[in-house]
Amino acid sequence: MTTLFLPIHRYAGVVSACIFFLMGLFIPISSFAQVELHILGITQDAGLPQLGCLRSCCQLNGKPRERVPVVSLGITQADSSKAILVEATPDINSQWQRLTELNRGTEPSSVLITHAHMGHYGGLMQLGREARNTNGVTVIGHPSLIDFLQRDQPWKQLITLQNIHSFPLQPLETKEIGQLTIRPISVPHRAEVSATYGYVLEGPFKRALFVPDIDKWSNWNISIDSLLQQVDYAFLDATFFDARELPGRNLREIPHPTVLETMERARDWPISLRQKVYLIHFNHTNPLLQPGSQPEELVTQFGVRIARVGDRMEL
Known about the structure:
The protein is α/β, with parallel strands linked by helices and 315 residues long. It has helices at 8-26, 92-102, 118-121, 143-151, 155-160, 224-228, 259-265, 271-274, 294-302, and strands spanning 35-41, 59-60, 63-64, 72-77, 84-86, 110-112, 137-141, 164-168, 175-177, 180-187, 196-202, 207-211, 233-237, 277-280, 305-306, 312-314.
């Protein structure tokens, strides 16, 4: 009887060559390079614990709780010279170090900033000659943010001494860094110093939306519902769980969509859409910072995710 099976070891080299040839017909070589997004921080500008806070959210047995860093992302690529730090926070020291470790020992070459509120750009001072004394780190942001950095001290000194190179990103412009494409989206938010961007971060395979600060979803001229359909991950403003967290404060002066408001908006979304959402930018009072809390259980059962430091996603 004639067999149809051949001794594979005799033809292994030929078979492998054929497989790789066929794969090359359909998969561009560049797609093999990996782009990863890392969550380096999740709290609102002042972090946790906050200065002078003696509440249980900040204190445990009379001592400050372990630090939870301010909202930040890190992006690594196969080309280690293309690592990007998203936001320059008060915790930039540890976040810069962590991203460098994740990037195989090479420091970030770029910093992407959403807006000029303290938790998002203040860490740039650590790049100056009194500290890291970096050489030509590219800082990317809204033109009004870049104009502020170029005009006012002490930020202007960073540019004068070439610690940073400023790159204004126009509203309809995109910027490519390695295999990552950065797409800015104008977001309504308090503009005391600069306008605010959200960003779509697009890798070879997936897209992430980053909107850590917005006044209200209803104030946006873009539908968050439709925008979510165009991305794979969405890191969204979850500063306050509900309006009762800061008694004595006028929340109209610091408007954010509460988590309960966002969940109400998402009530009719399919579970596949809800699961794209990662809540982030938590105020120190937000109970979602307390693992095992009832609000955490409520959010998890609803199908929305809670961002945690150390999470990573492929782009």
